[in-house]
Amino acid sequence: MAFACLAAAGLTACGEPRQDAKEPSGRFQVSAKASFPGTQSLAKTTKLVIRVRNEEARRVIPNVAVTVHGFDYRTKQQGVADPSRPIFVINGVPKRIGNFPETKEASPTGGETAYVDTWALGPLRPGKVKTFKWTVTAVRSGPYKLRYTVAGGLNGKAKAVGVGGGLVRGTFSGDVSDKPPQSRVADDGKTVIR
Question: Is residue 130 within 8 Å of residue 121, measured between CB atoms?
Answer without folding.
Answer: yes
